[in-house]
Amino acid sequence: MSMGTVNIPWYIFPLIKLGYMKFWHSTAYYIIPPHFKRRIEWSPADEDTIYHVFAMTFGKPRNYETGEIVYTDKVYFYHRWRECVWHYDPLVESIIQVVYPHEATATIREPLEILFVNETDTIVIMDVSIWLFEYKKDFEPMLNEYLEGVFNFFRAMGKLKVEEIEGFIKTAIIRR
Amino acid sequence: MGERVLPYSLLLTDEEKAKIEKALKEGKMVIITHKNPKVKIGGDLEKVVVITK
Fold first, then answer.
1. B27 belongs to a structural domain
2. Which residues of chain B have a CB within 8 Å of the CB of A125?
3. Alpha helices (H) in chain A, listed in sequence order
4. In angstroms, rounded to a whole number, what is the distance separating the alpha carbons of residues A142 and A18?
5. What pTM, to 2 d.p., does this model score?
6. Of A28, A32, A66, which is closest to B1 when you measure between CB atoms?
């Protein structure tokens, strides 16, 4: 079971408060039969919507018949999305017991891709929540400008000497 | 034996429970999720059964 708090990325707060993005999460049970391997895609249902997934949380994977907790590298998934390489996620504690951080963009043309694999003789059930912000495609250019602004600000700060940064902060405080 | 923490008694009808058992016997994966027209589940779905509540 995922441990810890699902934190909203700090740079997203203004976008929520100003109404450009809306929060929700999608929760599902997955019941995976033995000796199973299939790829599924998960995305918004329409062309005009984009999902920014910022976390994934997992319940305890269990033996479907007995309810016993199952941690194994023989049940796993591979997944990828626009900003992420194809990689292996076994149902082991270092994956299941953390809030899995994401910076994932999902659209109908670029969905989250997940390959479910169960190499055991056991039916496994687990619940998964996908935490996301939803926004409209029209907003993407403005979002990119905003993110470039964040990047440029920190890039500029990185070029300053420590004394210059201290001076910048002191000036900002005095002006308040 | 562990605790059986499944949503069946609260969420699923007898018909849905039967659908799950049938799907698993046929080697299909089952996804139980909320009814949400805003999400699309696609891919290799011939061996995946989606039950929306």
1. yes
2. 6
3. 13-17, 93-96, 140-159, 162-175
4. 13
5. 0.85
6. A66
Q: Is the Cβ of B31 closer than 8 Å to some Cβ of chain A?
A: yes
Bridging pattern class, strands B48-52 and B29-33: parallel
Question: Any idea which residue has 């329409």 for tokens?
Answer: A46
SS (H, E, C) A65-87: CCCCECCEEEEEEEEEECCEEEE
Question: Mapped to the 3 state alphabet, what secondary structure does chain B carry?
Answer: CCCCCCCHHHHCCHHHHHHHHHHHHCCCEEEEECCCCCEEEEECHHHEEEEEC
User: Which residue in B24, B27, B44 is closest to A39 by CB distance?
Assistant: B44
Calpha distance B23→A33 (Å, rounded): 9
Domain of A125: which CATH number? 2.60.120
Domain count, chain B: 1
User: Looking at this predicted complex, what is its ipTM?
Assistant: 0.85
The helix/strand count (H/E) of chain A reads as 4, 9
pLDDT (tens digit, 9 = 90+) per residue, A84-140? 999 999 999 898 888 888 889 999 999 999 999 999 999 999 999 999 999 999 999
- Contacts of residue B2 in chain A, CB cutoff 8 Å? 62-63, 66-69
Considering its fold, how many domains does chain A have in total?
Answer: 1
- Maximum Cα interatomic distance, chain A, rounded to a whole number of Å: 68
- Structural domain boundaries enclosing B39: 11-52
Q: Are A4 and A131 in contact, with CB atoms under 8 Å apart?
A: no
